[in-house]
């Protein structure tokens, strides 16, 4: 039996530094998803993406990465994008990573990668602190709605 059949189908990974105000909004999203009580969904709140997460990606069928991005006057909305791995010659093996290189590493190690999406939340305050801005708070709520829609779409797809 395939290991992926026995484990939660869906993984939500929220990442960012929760001691740098809005930068930690991804972790807040992951923590909120954990309270949903959905047995097929597992969430991880981490400071950064690391190569060790490839094992977690290998044991799921669908992953949603959640991160903050520096908002501007032109771009200040939650963004949702499908992801594919980087070309295998281009992924990073250091301590920090980005989702596409982590997918590429997973593919290189396990000859598999899950379907993946990236949800990014607008952020304006990256100073030391644990309070998030109103923009990030609004983005957090929107991101949770978008993630719920993604999960529903995945669970209803064949």
From TrEMBL:
Protein name as annotated: Hydrogenase maturation protease
A Gene Ontology BP annotation from the UniProt entry: protein processing
Keyword NAD among UniProt keywords: no
Keyword Cytoplasm: no
Single GO MF annotation: endopeptidase activity
Keywords: Hydrolase, Protease
Classification via NCBIfam families: hydrog_prot
SUPFAM superfamilies: HybD-like (SSF53163)
Entry-linked CDD domains: H2MP_NAD-link-bidir
């Amino acid at each position: 039996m395939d290991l992926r059949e026995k484990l939660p189908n869906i993984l939500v990974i929220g990442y960012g530094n929760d001691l740098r105000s809005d930068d930690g909004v991804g972790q807040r999203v992951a923590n909120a998803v954990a309270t949903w009580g959905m047995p097929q969904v597992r969430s991880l709140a981490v400071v950064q993406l690391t190569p060790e997460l490839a094992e977690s990606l290998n044991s799921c069928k669908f992953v949603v990465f959640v991160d903050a991005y520096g908002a501007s006057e032109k771009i200040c909305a939650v963004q949702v994008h499908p992801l594919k791995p980087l070309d295998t010659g281009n992924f990073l093996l250091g301590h920090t990573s980005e989702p596409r290189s982590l997918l590429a590493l997973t593919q290189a190690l396990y000859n598999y990668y899950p379907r993946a999406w990236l949800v990014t939340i607008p952020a304006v305050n990256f100073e030391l602190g644990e309070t998030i801005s109103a923009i990030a708070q609004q983005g957090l709520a929107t991101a949770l709605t978008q993630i719920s829609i993604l999960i529903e779409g995945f669970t209803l797809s064949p």
